[in-house]
């Protein structure tokens, strides 16, 4: 007896929407309107910094605690050609969290660009627009990350932060900046007309930065080789790159170990045999054996 389909995608989209709403809500709650204009009368209005939480995905404040995106910290150090321990202290909790879970879980569960591109995926399917599956090697984004750091040092500003599409809506609300929005529009155009997931898979420098850290996390996708029929539906659904599933499907690996994996769960939802599931591992070993999990689940279902 097969189990009902999983709902990883629904949960993940809910998380993405909540995160996006959280970052936009703080300036609005402080009395900000679109394009950075304060609304109301001549009476003093609040500022986002007065709230318990405010900021962007690059830099945020939670009460007295400052959180800094580690890639933004690296860019800042490169741009200023200096080292500030405070930047590392602010980035450390973020590195620790994504390092423990899985670095590119940020891309799958938090990044608003990924949410937008999933909507674009649906639109493209509805319009029956065909694009190439792979137009740029997925490791290109690691080179893009290095290029951004070097470029930041050369021009004296954090390059990716200046044009990042990740906080496009947040920056539009707070200061009326259209730069991120323009970058996002170009990404959407590339997705519709050039290649499937070309930004997330191959070009995003932040994704490249997290890819370099991505193999460390303990959350992984496990495969039950006895249940897998190698139908390929998981690869078709993969938001990162279909080839990262090959070692688990065809080479006997029990988990998807590639640093590119976003642990988004799209492959879990797509599998008709329920052969894929989340598991927890430490580097070099499995805390849970996928075949054992399958046997236990099948036993439970058959009761």
Q: What would you say this structure looks like, in words?
A:
It is built from 15 helices and 7 strands. 52% of the residues lie in helices and 9% in strands. By secondary structure, the protein is an alpha+beta fold. The N and C termini lie close together (10 Å). It has helices spanning 8-29, 70-80, 85-101, 105-109, 112-127, 140-155, 159-163, 168-175, 179-193, 198-203, 205-213, 233-237, 246-250, 266-270, 290-302, and strands at residues 53-55, 59-62, 65-68, 219-223, 255-256, 276-282, 285-286.
Radius of gyration from the alpha-carbon trace, in angstroms: 21 Å
* Overall domain count: 2
Tell me the strand percentage band: 5-15%
Biggest sheet, spatial arrangement of strands:
5-4-6-7
Give the overall form.
globular
Structural class: alpha+beta
- Could you estimate the helical fraction of the residues in percent? 40-55%
Annotation keywords:
2 domains, alpha+beta, globular, 303 residues, Alpha-Beta Plaits, single chain
In short:
The protein has helices at residues 8-29, 70-80, 85-101, 105-109, 112-127, 140-155, 159-163, 168-175, 179-193, 198-203, 205-213, 233-237, 246-250, 266-270, 290-302, and strands at residues 53-55, 59-62, 65-68, 219-223, 255-256, 276-282, 285-286. It is of the alpha+beta class.
């Amino acid at each position: 007896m097969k189990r009902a389909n999983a709902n990883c995608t629904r949960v993940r989209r809910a998380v993405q929407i909540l995160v996006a709403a959280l970052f936009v809500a703080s300036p609005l709650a402080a009395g900000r309107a679109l394009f950075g204009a304060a609304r109301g009368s001549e009476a003093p209005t609040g500022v986002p910094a007065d709230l318990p939480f405010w900021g962007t995905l690059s830099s945020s404040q939670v009460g007295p605690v400052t959180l800094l995106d580690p890639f933004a910290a690296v860019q800042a150090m490169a741009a200023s050609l200096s080292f500030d321990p405070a930047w590392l202290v602010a980035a450390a909790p973020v590195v620790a969290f994504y390092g423990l879970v899985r670095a590119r879980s940020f891309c799958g569960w938090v990044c608003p660009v990924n949410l937008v591109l999933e909507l674009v995926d649906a639109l493209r399917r509805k319009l029956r627009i065909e694009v190439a599956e792979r137009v740029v090697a997925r490791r290109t984004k690691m080179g893009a990350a290095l290029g951004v750091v070097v470029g930041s040092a050369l021009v004296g500003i954090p390059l990716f932060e200046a044009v990042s599409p990740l906080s496009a809506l947040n920056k539009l609300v707070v200061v009326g900046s259209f730069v991120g929005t323009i970058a996002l529009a170009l990404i959407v155009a590339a997705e519709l007309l050039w290649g499937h997931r070309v930004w997330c898979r191959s070009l995003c420098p932040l994704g490249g930065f997290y890819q370099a850290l991505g193999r460390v996390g303990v959350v992984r996708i496990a495969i039950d080789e006895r249940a897998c029929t190698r139908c390929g539906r998981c690869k078709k659904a993969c938001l990162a790159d279909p080839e990262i599933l090959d070692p688990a499907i065809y080479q006997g690996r029990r988990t998807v170990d590639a640093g590119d994996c976003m642990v988004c769960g799209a492959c879990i939802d797509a599998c008709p045999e329920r052969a894929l599931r989340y598991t927890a591992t430490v580097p070099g070993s499995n805390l849970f054996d996928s075949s054992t999990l399958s046997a236990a689940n099948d036993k439970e279902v058959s009761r």
